Amino acid sequence: MDAQHITTKERLAIPRQEMPAQLPEVRIHNFNEVHLGYTPELAQREALRCIQCKNPTCVKGCPVNIKIDQFIKLIAEGNFLGAAKKIKEDNVLPAVCGRVCPQEDQCEKMCILTKKHESVAIGNLERFAADYERETGNVELPFVKPSTGKKVAVIGSGPAGLSCANDLVQLGHAVTVFEALHELGGVLVYGIPEFRLPKEIVKGEIDGLKKLGVLFVTNAVAGRSITVDELLQEEHFDAVFIGVGAGLPWFMGIPGENLLGVYSANEFLTRVNLMKSYQFPENDTPVFNCQGKNVAVFGGGNTAMDAVRTAKRLGAEHAYIVYRRSEAEMPARLEELHHAQKEGIEFMLLMNPVEFIGNDQQWLTGVKCIRMELGEPDDSGRRRPVPIKDSEFTLPIDMAIISIGNGSNPLIKQTTPDIDVSKRDTIVVDMKTMATSKENVYAGGDIVTGGATVILAMGAGRTAAAAIHEKLMNTKTN
Amino acid sequence: MYKIVSAQFLAENIKKIEIEAPRIAKKRKAGQFVMIRVGQRGERIPLTIAGSDPEKGTITLIVQGMGKSTKELNLKEAGDTINDIVGPLGAPSHIENFGTAVSIGGGVGTAIAYPTAVALKEAGNYVITINGARSKDLVILEEEMSAVSDEAYITTDDGSYGFHGFVTQKLQQLIDAGKKIDYVLAIGPIPMMKAVAEVTRPYNIQTVVSLNPIMVDGTGMCGGCRVTVNNEIKFACVDGPEFDAHLVDFKNLTDRNKLYLHEEKQSAEAYAHQCNLQKQF
């Protein structure tokens, strides 16, 4: 079968190609990536499944409108580098997005094949093209337009900031990215584990931006090391994009949350991912010793899955997800949920913690939970969990990881009072331009939406970049 | 990489280190801290800024060698570098003319109390400083403290210098002598801060302590530094590090700081072993 002479019937007869992966019993003992990637043969076969719709609905399902039909056609034809280039017209971080996007809720959900078959594995193909380009050393630098003489500051080097910086630098603006931590990448390095997104890949994408001329400043905390006003007035940036991500983790407000062994998912994942405490004491930062212990993660999102699978890899005897709704309501990507199930994660569904219990040394020993049942749908459209009377029980645990979301970092609000914020302290923007209430200041990503996805943050970064470009080019310099 | 401009020991195991960090030097205010990472594989540790020279572009840290990271830092000399330094973090000390302000420093806490004592003096307060140490050899910043104080006291646990006893005994003595005290700042080991809070509580004297919980990022992301203040969760890195001493749950802070005792010991032992090997070669 080749891409030129294949009938739709033949295309539909090809089953969805699974991506080879490390076996669950092997991968729970290491931090290496779970998926091993498509071979060129597997990728081509998968690409042939795409029936090349005249009106490709998948593209509409993608927050950055990658020309999905076109790049898949290129893969089917064996033009892998061409496919990578095509993706990069719309997405700066394809190797990242191919791995972490919730495709089943976006492009793959819209795939016409889902009506009768499984959707085309768009995410896997995106990842394949990006990896092929990188691994064969064929990454081509995009064309950078002549200098406009304008300077833009980007605060935060996560997905929103990186995509904004990429577009602006290509349009000829001088871009400086300020990062609070000592490493670049934001949530891609401190939050998402190595086994889901190898840090080398993030580094590769950032190196690409450096080659385009983007300047990066680490150890610079917006609102403390430098304020938005200082960037505009003292450092003479023409515009500022704020992509600082989510901030302070939420706790549940139940008794015993300050016991030893109770962590926020942010802290646990930062210790392990950013500080590499899974290699303690070679690295100085320690983390709770999970070896042979019972660990419970509270929450049902991607971060909860990351945390529980990390605990398992650190040697936890029992690694639980405690979630107050049922599996159907879990916000985690389907793939992460399946991986977790295969890795022996134990799901305690329809249960809600009411109190953490500790010993006289203040170490956590258990959590008192109550069983729940699903009632009427709530504001989110999901059925509201309701406690079942007298159903309390105690689950013995040594460590608890709370993964119920984040609030907003207060530093920008405290130091830049003329930027409007919502009741939840997220920054208020015009969604068409991502412009804030302050002139020449834009924002996007989790600081605007609250905890969301990498690709949505990237979409916001790109929208802002386009608006910043237009504003700067239409403003006469005195 | 950040360059160390000067480094000298003030007392056994307590070193004064001046580091090039122009942005921080320009911005920092009394009471704020930095997170530093000594080496490539280092942990991020919070250290309160003891002083700065905005023109020279340097900040001063006064560091007691406790665990691996601080011991490693204290081996650094002028010309050496450290990997990372970020700040200034935390809310600055609340400074106003309270009237009579007492600044209490215990051990290396004196170094942290010093910049706030300077700011209190500049704001027009009558400043009394009480600096405690275990013994005479461990007294630091005596001249500096005395220069900003209207009354300066040194206390030593063993009586080898100054007042024989704890800082709290000296404070109680001042109160008993009828001194009208409007504000107390206490920085030092947790038991000392707790004891100061108990001395001032019956008199309703406004008392502030600077807390030192374990931190990872120091910018309000991880929640590891949460402390209980007035029965509410607060994050020392963004809400603090200074809090009302009468509302702080010191027991919870003490407990939480024990979280990594085992690992800290393991790390320190591995480091001591490595240093011994280096000495032998």
Structure explained in plain terms:
The complex is a heterodimer of chains A (478) and B (281). Chain A is built from 19 helices and 14 strands. Chain A has helices at 8-13, 24-27, 40-48, 57-61, 68-76, 80-88, 94-100, 107-110, 122-135, 159-170, 187-190, 199-211, 228-233, 265-274, 302-313, 334-342, 411-415, 446-449, 454-473; strands spanning 151-155, 174-178, 215-217, 239-242, 262-264, 294-298, 318-323, 346-349, 351-358, 364-377, 383-387, 393-396, 399-402, 441-443. The longest helix of chain A is centred in the last third of the chain and has 20 residues, at 454-473. The mean pLDDT of chain A is 91. With 478 residues, chain A is of the alpha/beta class. A 5-stranded parallel beta sheet of chain A has the order 3-2-1-4-14. Chain A has a 5-stranded parallel beta sheet with strand order 5-13-6-7-8. Chain B has 281 residues and is an alpha/beta fold. Chain B has 8 helices and 17 strands. Chain B has a 7-stranded mixed beta sheet with strand order 12-11-10-9-13-14-17, sandwiched between helices. The radius of gyration of chain B is 18 Å and the shape is globular. Chain A binds chain B through residues 180-182, 190, 218-221, 224-226, 247-249, 251, 257-258, 260-261, 263-264, 266-267, 270-271, 275-276, 280-286, 288-289, 361-362, 409-411, and chain B through 23-24, 27, 37, 39, 41-44, 68-69, 83-89, 216-217, 219-224, 226, 228, 233, 235, 238, 252, 255-256, 258-260, 262-264, 266-267, 270.
